[in-house]
Design brief:
Elements lengths: L1 H15 L2 E10 L9 E6 L5 E6 L5 E7 L3 E8 L2 E9 L5 E2 L2 E3 L16 E4 L2 E5 L11 H5 L5 E3 L5 E3 L2 E8 L2 E2 L5 H5 L7 E8 L17 E7 L7 E10 L3 E11 L3 E10 L8 H6 L13 E3 L18 E16 L2 E24 L7 E25 L2 E22 L3 E9 L2 E14 L2 E14 L2 E7 L7 H4 L7 E26 L2 E23 L5 E3 L9 E20 L2 E18 L2 E21 L2 E13 L9 E5 L2 E4 L7 E14 L4 E13 L2 E10 L9 E12 L4 E14 L2 E18 L2 E18 L6 E14 L4 E17 L3 E14 L3 E14 L6 E8 L6 E7 L3 E8 L4 E9 L1
Parallel strand pairs: 1-7, 1-8, 13-16, 20-35, 37-41, 40-43
Antiparallel strand pairs: 1-4, 2-3, 2-5, 5-6, 9-10, 10-15, 11-12, 12-13, 13-14, 15-16, 17-18, 17-52, 18-19, 19-21, 21-22, 22-23, 22-51, 23-24, 24-25, 24-26, 25-28, 26-27, 27-29, 28-29, 29-30, 30-31, 30-32, 32-33, 33-34, 34-35, 35-38, 36-37, 38-39, 39-42, 40-41, 42-43, 43-44, 44-45, 45-46, 46-47, ...
């Protein structure tokens, strides 16, 4: 690590030696400083762009230039005449000011250079070639090198600390704006410009009426040779042990229509679309009940399939296919859609140590082998009709369907061997209809309606040996004369939900408006479940206990009718948006032949204060009071298996929770010195929260007088706690670019506190998680580039009688080099040390590398790549829940080496 740092410092010293600094100011003819003026230096000997800068709010600029060289200095600003000046450098820094005059010329100015960064209002335009060094493969590699941008390992894009909400290509949605599919699939060599659209709104009529400051979109402009032609790549590779990869990707863009086709077949652990991606994929839908103060989310009732950790497991086979299209029959009508299929076959192996909160429950070690099979499908069709600037009609149809199974061989030191199987085939349909109408400049209307139909059918089965440790026998009325206890559960949850709202804006002037909102949420849910026992004879025994309800047949109706009023006013640097929403709520659940109803009204205030210090520096404060409601899963009072160790009993009399949400965020992006700062703090206090009351079942002592001990079997029931839940989160990052060097430091702190009841006793759970990151990277065009960094995470769990602390130290080094005009070498190395307060639990490292060869203008490319080259066997993670803190070791795929061939269209 020290050697790498030394080499990197040598590169920095070499890059910064023999340079001088040119500083100055740019003003107009009245002496007013010009912010965001472009200043570039062209080397007269090569006519190449040597350096560039953008003035700050004081009109200052700064350029790095070579000593003893001749330059043409060009200064440009929209609406003013471009300045062309000559400059000769020596060995000392220079100071030079410029005064720009009105452009009297009517002729077009022919530009002989490309500005790396151009700013036009709320749009920042990056010229991608100015930041590329030749080693980039995909869009994500390009975006990482742009000032103010970050791309996470999952493909999520941040601009100046704000998450990008939509990605477009040539103004057309790319898979409904999904950033992961864009960053990991669009070829880097097709990217010409990257347009960052800040303060954006997909409905032009509504722009500026609300608070758009957190809405950031990206539009990718393609190179001319990629338009009206098919482009992309076809990749195939093989390796030892029958390993393979196949990745055809094809793209077509024209003014009238576009087509994107992405496929990925492999058995090397590369997962293009995870199950988590599937459940989080909204299709671009926004709830019509947003920002009203009501929080009613339809939960997923699946039994909890294991999700992959960092795309690593013992064995992974993936199949993925996706197609996206857009078509414009005429200028006023756009049709688009996509279809996605993702299939995976996965094997996981894990060892865990469970430390239970209750001191009378012994620690438990477990070994788990899991096989998962999932087939996931998504389909969306959209239409946008905009006959004129005053009317827009949108319609969307979005469907999800899947088939999933999971089998698990589980061994517990307390319960012995257990076989588990679960499956589900859920599907949902979502429809959206929006109409936006502008009567005139002062009166604007928006009607938004959304309907959701969701059907879920999770099935669970557990087969375990007769044991004193298993304490659910009497509760469920099991037949104990069988060789094994073979228990199964069927569940069905159907949801019909309609959200509708009508918004009216009365625009008083350019700085203020009044917004009136009226709307409703109507939801009906049907919950059915039954637990049964499979007997040795193969017959099915429906379980029954006179003292316990084991079956569920529940209907739950929820209604929210609301009226809201908001006033927005801008005064100087401040924008105030206070508001209040009145709600009339009605809840009714029917089960066991009786009804429980609850109706009430509530007024929920909210406020937003924005301080715009300058175009690229803001401070934003938001407060919102919310009413939080549960869905039917917590109301069904019949017994439900969460897993073989836990039974859940709902509570039909649950009340809503009231929460206070405060958020303060700061964003600053200085193009003068390429400093990017963002920070936010968030505090949430939830009153009358829904928490679980849990009881560990007792195992009687073997002999008279022996003390009883507690099993790991729990029965839980939700209730409204008298003690508030609190969470506090703080996050921040500082980033600075020094020429070809980019450095950043950041961190996240999260503190949560909640109360629950365990065995009749109040238990306070506190968790404090910390994550710190620092990194420094280079972006040389003619030299190898290195990124070094360090990640530190500290997780502290305090559960009263139990306290645990886990620490992960992880330095990393990434190298990429483009050399001999044909070769690209990349390598990523990371080291992990995982420990608790007493000892190192595990230490491991990862190395992946790739060497590729492609001659210029030749469509064929050959590469040799390897993953997990150090053949690390396992990783670790820790977590905490209501009952326990666990630390786990899970096994991952071995070393893979792949020889692949790519054909670039």
């Amino acid at each position: 690590m020290k050697n790498i740092l030394f080499i990197m410092l040598c590169f920095i010293a070499q890059a910064t030696s023999a340079q001088i600094q040119l500083e100055g100011t740019v003003k107009d003819s009245l002496g007013k400083p010009l912010e965001l003026a472009n200043v570039i230096a062209l080397n007269k000997a090569t006519n190449a762009l040597e350096s560039y800068g953008i003035t700050n709010n004081e009109g200052k600029f700064r350029l790095k230039l070579k000593q003893n060289s001749n330059y043409t200095i060009k200064v440009s600003f929209i609406g003013l005449a471009t300045i062309n000046d000559s400059l000769q450098t020596k060995e000392a820094d220079l100071q030079k000011d410029f005064v720009m005059k009105k452009d009297e010329s009517l002729a077009a100015v022919e530009l002989t250079y490309e500005m790396p960064v151009t700013i036009k209002g709320d749009t920042i335009i990056y010229n991608a070639d100015s930041f590329k060094n030749g080693s980039e493969r995909k869009l994500g590699d390009v975006l990482k090198k742009l000032p103010g941008m970050e791309v996470s390992d999952e493909g999520e894009i941040e601009v100046e600390g704000k998450t990008v909400t939509k990605v477009m290509v040539e103004g057309k949605d790319f898979f409904d704006g999904d950033s992961k599919l864009a960053t990991k699939n669009i070829p880097a060599d097709a990217v010409d410009k990257v347009e960052v659209l800040k303060n954006s709104n997909e409905v032009s009529q509504l722009k500026g009426l609300g608070n758009d400051q957190d809405n950031v979109m990206i539009n990718i402009k393609l190179k001319e040779g990629k338009k009206n032609f098919w482009f992309g790549e076809i990749t195939g590779g093989i390796g030892p042990e029958e390993r393979y990869v196949a990745n055809p990707r094809l793209f077509y863009y024209s003014p009238k229509y576009s087509v994107n086709i992405i496929t990925d077949f492999n058995n090397i652990g590369s997962i293009p679309f995870t199950r988590r991606d599937y459940f989080n994929f909204t299709g671009g839908f926004r709830s019509a009940g947003r920002n009203t103060g009501t929080n009613f989310n339809v939960a997923s009732s699946d039994i909890g399939f294991l999700t992959l950790r960092d795309n690593r497991a013992k064995d992974i086979n993936s199949k993925f296919g996706a197609a996206n299209f857009s078509y414009s029959p005429k200028k006023t009508w756009d049709i688009s859609g996509f279809a996605i299929y993702s299939g995976s076959r996965t094997e996981l192996e894990e060892n865990s140590l469970n430390d239970y909160i209750d001191e009378n429950t012994p620690d438990e070690t477990t070994t788990t082998t899991t096989r998962q099979k999932s087939d996931l499908g998504l389909l969306k069709l959209s239409s946008v009709y905009k006959p004129n600037t005053n009317n827009q009609l949108d319609y969307d149809f979005f469907a999800k369907i899947s088939q999933q199974t999971e089998t698990e061989d589980y061994f517990s030191s307390l319960l012995g061997d257990i076989d588990e199987r679960q499956s589900q085939n859920p599907y949902s349909f979502n429809q959206n209809l929006n109409y936006y109408y502008t009567l005139n400049n002062n009166h604007i209307f928006a009607l938004e309606a959304q309907h959701l139909y969701q059907d879920e059918d999770p099935f669970y089965n557990a087969r375990l040996a007769q044991s004193e440790q298993f304490r659910f026998t009497d509760l469920l009325g099991l037949n104990t004369s069988q060789t094994f206890l073979d228990i199964a559960q069927d569940k069905r949850v159907k949801t019909n939900k309609l959200d509708a709202r009508l918004d009216y804006w009365y625009v008083l002037n350019q700085k203020s408006n009044i917004n009136i909102t009226v709307g409703t949420t109507l939801s009906t849910q049907q919950f059915d479940s039954e637990i049964f026992q499979l007997l040795d004879s193969g017959s099915k025994l429906l379980l029954n206990n006179p003292q316990e309800a084991i079956r569920n047949d529940v209907t739950y109706n929820f209604t929210d009718t609301f009226l809201g009023l908001h006033y927005k006013i801008k005064s100087g640097k401040f924008t105030f948006t206070p508001g209040i929403t009145a709600h009339a709520y009605s809840l009714k659940n029917t089960q066991f032949g009786s009804e429980f109803t609850d109706t009430f009204t509530r007024f929920l205030p909210d406020a937003n204060i924005l301080v715009q210090f300058k175009d690229s520096e803001t401070l934003n404060f938001t407060y919102q009071m919310q009413t939080d409601f549960t869905d039917v899963n917590n109301l069904a009072e019949g017994l439900v298996f969460n897993n073989f160790n836990a039974i859940f009993r709902g509570n039909r009399t649950l009340e809503n929770a009231l929460s206070h949400n405060l958020n303060l965020s700061y964003f600053s992006f200085n193009l003068f010195n390429y400093t990017n700062i963002f920070a936010f703090v968030n505090y949430n206090k939830r009153i009358d929260p829904i928490r679980n009351r849990s009881q560990f079942l007792v195992i009687p002592g073997e002999n008279t007088g022996d003390p009883d001990i507690l099993s790991t079997n729990t029965v839980s029931t939700p209730f409204n706690s008298n003690f508030a839940d609190e969470t506090f989160t703080a996050n921040g990052r500082f980033e600075r670019t020094f020429g070809k060097i980019k450095a950043s430091v950041g961190g996240t702190l999260s503190l949560s506190k909640f109360n629950q009841e365990i065995n009749g006793q109040r238990a306070v759970n506190e968790s404090f998680t910390q994550a710190y990151q620092t990194r420094i990277s280079t972006n040389f065009r003619d030299a190898p580039n290195v990124e070094v960094g360090y990640n530190l995470s500290i997780n502290t769990y305090d559960q009263g009688q139990n306290s645990n602390r886990f620490i992960t130290n992880s330095p990393f080094v990434n190298v990429d080099a483009y050399f001999l005009k044909s070769f690209i070498f990349t390598a990523d190395y990371s080291y992990f040390n995982y420990s608790n307060e007493e000892r190192t639990i595990n230490s491991y490292s990862f190395l992946k590398a790739e060497l590729s060869y492609r001659k210029k203008d030749n469509p064929w490319e050959y590469s040799l790549s390897g993953t997990n080259l150090l053949n690390t066997k396992s990783l670790n993670q820790d977590n905490s829940n209501n009952f326990l803190t666990s630390t786990s070791e899970y096994f991952i795929q071995p070393r893979y080496v792949i020889l692949s061939v790519k054909y670039n269209l």
